Amino acid sequence: MSHKDYPFIVLPMEISHAKSICEWKFAPPYNIYGWLPWEQMELLGIEFGDPLLRATQYLSVMNESGDLCGFAQLFPLEGVTRLGICMHPDLCGQGKGKSFVLSIVHAALLREPHDEIDLEVLTWNKRAIQAYIKANFIITDCYERLTPEGIKDFYCMVYQLNND
After folding, report:
1. Cα dihedral 149, 150, 153, 159 sign
2. Angle, helix 97-111 to helix 126-134, in steps of 10 degrees
3. Which residue among 121, 135, 136, 144 is least crowded, i.e. fewest CB within 10 A of its CB?
4. 12-40 tens-digit pLDDT
5. Could you tell me the pTM of the whole model?
6. What's the CA gap between 77 and 75, in Å, rounded?
């Protein structure tokens, strides 16, 4: 990968970014990716509302101007880093997905260079799947998983290092 493949800046998530993310509004059907209000996230200590999880697993993804463009979770499994990826709703569908995802993959590989990189994605989320495929992920499995909206179908996608 070259620098042009990952032009986004990926840094540990700041609390101001966490608060901002809680205010993002996604149009249906993507509205399932919304979060609870920040005060609830912090009070319940869930996800990036937990200071330890925020510091160890969550990253802010910014453009060169320092604008928050999205975030990622690097969830550690045995020999695997599982990515959780979210782009700001105003930036989705603009062709930036490949470079956004590759920037996150690069950060994950810097952190755990020997880990496999994978992610889970709802099978109906064609827009995200297309971006992941362009970023060298392949579908390796399909399964059902419980979500807040009930049982849903997911793909597991694994990053394939491109040695071009």
Report:
1. positive
2. 60
3. 144
4. 999 999 999 999 999 988 988 889 999 99
5. 0.92
6. 7
